[in-house]
Amino acid sequence: MSKISQEYFPKLLELAAKVDTPKWFYKSSGFIDEELERPLIGIVNTWQEATLGHMHLRQVADAVKAGVYLGGGTPIEFNLMGPCTGYSEATRNYRFDLPQRDAIADSMEIQLEVLRCKGSQQ
After folding, report:
1. d(Cα 95, Cα 93) in Å, to the nearest integer?
2. 55 versus 17: which is more confidently predicted?
3. For residue 43, is pLDDT > 80?
4. Rounded to two decimals, what is the model's pTM?
5. Do residues 84 and 51 touch, judged by C-beta distance below 8 A?
6. Which of 10, 45, 67, 98 could bond 61 through an S-S bridge, CB–CB 3.0 to 4.6 Å?
7. Who's near 87: CB < 8 A, 6+ residues apart?
8. How is 41-98 classified by DSSP, letter by letter?
9. Domain residue spans in the chain?
10. Distance CA 60, CA 45 (A)
């Protein structure tokens, strides 16, 4: 396998930025062509069984996804961590509360961009 020369690398990055996420990637996850012709809308969910305040979010995400379908889009759901400060109150773990919020926001932004969700573009 040959290496890409330094002079072609910027051109390669420019071309890669123009390429939309390949349909085969989503089709391998179960999406069909008709769904992929509609705008892809990212649905961020922090559902988990370990946190009381997040246990209901499975049903909320399903309702949001139904609304996206009705609105003509294709929802793509993904999960992020959803820590609960209730577990860390009055302990030394409380110091993680604000930093984890930054990590969650950063993770969400990255995932929406990677998935090329139309609802995340401004």
Report:
1. 5
2. 55
3. yes
4. 0.68
5. yes
6. 45
7. 51, 93
8. EEEEE---SS-GGGTTHHHHHHHHHHHHHHTT-EEEEEE-----HHHHTTSGGGGGHH
9. 23-120
10. 9
